[in-house]
């Protein structure tokens, strides 16, 4: 029983440490796992790009990656590439106009594919640096639209998930999984399962001692069995309290703690003045 309680305490302390520290910087953005889709306009694409570092020709690799990700018919047999960047006025940050802010760079790109000149605009929405197999990698996601009058969509990056994550955490840990925090989700789920198992085990043991008491008339044995029964009752109540607290904590954490960065698209297009 002491060993079991030590394990339960270890789970609680681990979750507490994870919640106390700033884990948001260590979480990979959601767009690395799930590519955003603009449902209102199929011509608006989100293109993730990953480059192994060091990369002296990073800009060229980014452009090539975007070109290769364009739909069939856009980017076949590329024979010529060109790229121009212009500052936007007013500045756009996180999909919103910022007076006096630093201007956003939008690329106005050209390529020749199968003899046809194709133009499109792209804008970097978010970026992330990390390691993969021990090597540094740089990842970014770009919004890309054809230069045929299609507007780049207003979008912003957020680490908030609101009530949806809290609702999912009715099943412990699922809200954290949804927000991209697999470690914390596993601890919440494992902690609640462990606590529930503790409640069942201690109650079964308490009932077993109670049954043994009814089968003997030895006063010394009865006293020992009754003491064991009371200890199991206390342990059961502790398990119930810990599991209930962990379950409530799980829902609260899912509702308010930041998760992996994700991209949200607004309904308005971004208006540019070059």
Please explain how this structure is put together.
The protein is an alpha+beta fold and 274 residues long. Strands 1-7-6-5-2 form a 5-stranded antiparallel sheet, covered by helices on one side. It is elongated and about 95 Å long. It folds into 2 domains: 2-23 and 164-256; 35-155, no CATH class. Helix 1 packs antiparallel against helix 5 and helix 5 (182-213) runs antiparallel to helix 6 (219-256). The termini are far apart. A hairpin with a 2-residue loop joins strand 3 and strand 4 (96-98). It has 6 helices and 9 strands, in the order H-E-H-E-E-E-E-E-E-E-H-H-H-H-E. The longest helix is centred in the last third of the chain and has 38 residues, at 219-256.
What's a concise summary of this model?
The protein has 274 residues and is an alpha+beta fold. Helix content is 41%, strand content 28%. Strand 5 and strand 6 form a beta hairpin.
| pLDDT averaged over residues | 77
Largest sheet: 5 strands, antiparallel
Number of domains: 2
Number of helices: 6
Which helices and strands appear, and what pairs or packs with what?
Layout lengths: L1 H19 L24 E8 L5 H12 L8 E10 L3 E3 L2 E3 L6 E9 L2 E17 L2 E12 L6 E6 L4 H6 L5 H5 L3 H32 L5 H38 L5 E8 L5
Antiparallel strand pairs: 1-7, 2-5, 3-4, 5-6, 6-7, 8-9
Helix pairs in contact: 1-5, 5-6
């Amino acid at each position: 029983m002491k060993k079991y309680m030590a394990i339960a305490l270890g789970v609680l302390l681990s979750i507490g440490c994870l919640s106390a520290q700033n884990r948001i910087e260590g979480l990979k953005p959601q767009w690395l796992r799930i590519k955003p889709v603009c449902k209102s306009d199929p011509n608006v694409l989100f293109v993730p790009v990953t480059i192994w570092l060091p990369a002296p020709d990073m800009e060229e690799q980014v452009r090539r990656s975007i070109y290769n990700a364009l739909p069939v018919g856009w980017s076949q047999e590329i024979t010529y590439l060109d790229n121009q960047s212009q500052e936007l006025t007013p500045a756009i940050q996180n999909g919103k106009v910022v007076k006096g802010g630093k201007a956003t760079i939008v690329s106005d790109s050209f390529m020749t594919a199968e003899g046809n000149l194709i133009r499109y605009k792209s804008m970097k929405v978010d970026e992330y640096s990390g390691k993969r197999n021990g090597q540094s990698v740089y990842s970014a996601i770009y919004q890309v639209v054809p230069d045929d009058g299609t507007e780049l969509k207003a979008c912003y990056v957020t680490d908030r998930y609101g009530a949806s994550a809290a609702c999912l955490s009715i099943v412990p840990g699922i809200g954290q999984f949804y927000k991209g925090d697999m470690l914390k989700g596993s601890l919440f789920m494992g902690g609640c399962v462990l606590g529930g198992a503790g409640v069942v085990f201690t109650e079964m043991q308490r009932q077993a001692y109670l049954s043994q008491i009814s089968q003997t008339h030895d006063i010394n044995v009865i006293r020992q069995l009754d003491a064991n029964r009371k200890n199991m009752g206390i342990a059961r109540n502790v398990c119930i309290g810990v599991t209930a607290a962990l379950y409530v904590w799980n829902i609260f954490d899912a509702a308010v703690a930041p998760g992996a960065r994700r991209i949200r698209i607004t309904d308005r297009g971004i208006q540019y003045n070059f």
